[in-house]
């Protein structure tokens, strides 16, 4: 190992970070969480994902603007600390780290569920362990190899989603053989477009926010991105249009082809069900394989994001220095190994909770994404006051878009508190209080040291 005298290398390009953002956000939230969201909101889930996509657009524009104006920033902690101060930066760093380590644990279990499609005799914990080991090995290689792996994994899933959309449109509007095209009748025939009322739409927003969470990983790649002031805005623009398209169109097809109240009646993903309807031999196996790759891709991004947050914490002296050490390939090995430990904790949880592990973890993760986005939005508001110059890349409709995002996120947060399990809310609150307590303790220790030195 080499010491951290040499920093991370800027080897990631625009295509890498664009695909990483897609890889982080198009995973279990889409392929597994889709069933939960449809069960909560019915066909109106389309509206929920549209609202979430618009909020995401406003948040990511603000993040891109701050990144352009702070070319020396390593992660979005640096962006937030320079505007909001130490505590919001500390809180953001640790809830973001918590989000990813819980997310990769949840997705390891989801990957195991899809593997059980082929290996029904193997327990979930054993399959989750196999996937966890694979992800660990890929991330311990060089950043360039990791980025290339993530690029191709993301490209595969995007290609298949496009095929899914085209096939779904064909099934919707063209009758052939034993298949009768339903058109748009399923959108209103089974209790209407809002079968669960406004409450169902609000409840589904937690799944929606969780699903879109991960796109902000662009803010963690700053230290390893070539020309971030040019690359980040470009990646944000291209990523957002793809994410919204890859969520809205698939959900529109699913709730149009399959009655919403039947989606959760079977154990298979809605995506596998639709490919079965096409009638191509082995189509369900092909789709299952692609979904599995998509989830592994999302885990890959998650492990990258969490390990880099831990690395910068160590670099700044906030956690033990061992996590700042780099390998010869300039990979923070100890940070990666620390973060992968959550994968194996997820494996242990799945021994007792089985397939319900994902649903349990997803609720807490939804809260976390809400808070991450809120902190980024408030940081953007204050950053414009500190740097009013708008000659470079900037959000054109500032501050209206940022305030709209903040109001929407707070409204969703209030609605989610009243519609989410008290257990999930309490556990999440406990984690947040612990993070806050660690900051208070560290601050007091630092103040005491300074006072002792002055004596």
TrEMBL record:
Membrane topology: Multi-pass membrane protein
Annotated GO CC locations: plasma membrane
Any one of the GO BP annotations: amino acid transport
Domain called Amino acid permease/ SLC12A: residue spans: 16-426
InterPro entries: AA-permease/SLC12A_dom (IPR004841), Amino_acid_permease_CS (IPR004840)
Protein name, as recorded: Amino acid permease
Subcellular location(s) per record: Cell membrane
Keyword list, A-Z: Amino-acid transport, Membrane, Transmembrane, Transmembrane helix, Transport
Top-level lineage group: Bacteria
């Amino acid at each position: 190992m080499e010491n951290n005298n040499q920093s991370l290398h800027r080897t990631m390009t625009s295509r890498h970070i664009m695909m990483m953002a897609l890889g982080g956000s198009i995973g279990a939230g889409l392929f597994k969480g889709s069933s939960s969201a449809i069960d909560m909101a019915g066909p109106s889930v389309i509206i929920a994902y549209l609202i979430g996509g618009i909020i995401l657009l406003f948040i990511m524009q603000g993040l891109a603007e701050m990144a352009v104006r702070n070319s020396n920033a390593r992660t979005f902690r640096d962006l937030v600390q320079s505007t909001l101060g130490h505590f919001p930066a500390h809180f953001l760093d640790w809830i973001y780290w918590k989000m990813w380590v819980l997310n990769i644990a949840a997705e390891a279990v989801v990957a195991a569920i899809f593997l059980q499609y082929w290996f029904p005799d193997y327990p979930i914990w054993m399959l989750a362990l196999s996937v966890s080991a694979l992800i660990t090995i890929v991330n311990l290689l060089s950043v360039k190899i990791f980025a290339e792996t993530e690029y191709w994994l993301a490209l595969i899933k995007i290609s298949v989603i496009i095929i899914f959309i085209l096939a779904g449109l064909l099934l919707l509007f063209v009758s052939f053989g034993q298949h009768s095209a339903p058109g748009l009748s399923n959108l209103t025939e089974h209790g209407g477009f809002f079968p669960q009322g406004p409450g169902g739409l609000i409840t589904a927003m937690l799944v929606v926010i969780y699903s879109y969470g991960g796109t902000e990983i662009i803010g963690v790649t700053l230290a390893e991105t070539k020309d971030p002031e040019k690359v980040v805005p470009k990646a944000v623009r291209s990523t957002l249009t793809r994410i919204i398209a890859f969520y809205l169109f698939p959900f529109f097809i699913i709730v149009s082809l399959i009655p919403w109240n039947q989606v959760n009646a079977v154990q298979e993903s809605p995506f596998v069900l639709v490919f079965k309807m096409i009638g191509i031999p082995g189509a369900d196996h092909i789709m299952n394989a692609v979904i599995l790759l998509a989830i592994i891709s999302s885990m890959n991004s998650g492990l990258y994001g969490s390990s880099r947050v831990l690395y910068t914490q160590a670099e700044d002296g906030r956690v033990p220095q061992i996590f700042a050490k780099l390998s010869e390939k300039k990979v923070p090995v100890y940070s990666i190994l620390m973060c992968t430990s959550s994968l194996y904790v997820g494996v242990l949880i799945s021994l007792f909770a089985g397939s319900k592990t994902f649903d349990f973890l997803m609720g807490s993760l939804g809260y976390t994404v809400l808070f991450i986005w809120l902190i980024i939005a408030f940081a953007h508001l204050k950053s414009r006051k500190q740097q009013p110059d708008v000659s470079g890349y900037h959000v054109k409709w500032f501050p209206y878009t940022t305030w709209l995002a903040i109001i929407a996120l707070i409204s969703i947060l209030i609605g989610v508190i009243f519609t989410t399990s008290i257990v999930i809310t309490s556990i999440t609150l406990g984690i947040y209080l612990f993070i806050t307590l660690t900051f208070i303790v560290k601050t007091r220790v630092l103040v005491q040291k300074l006072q002792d030195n002055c004596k």
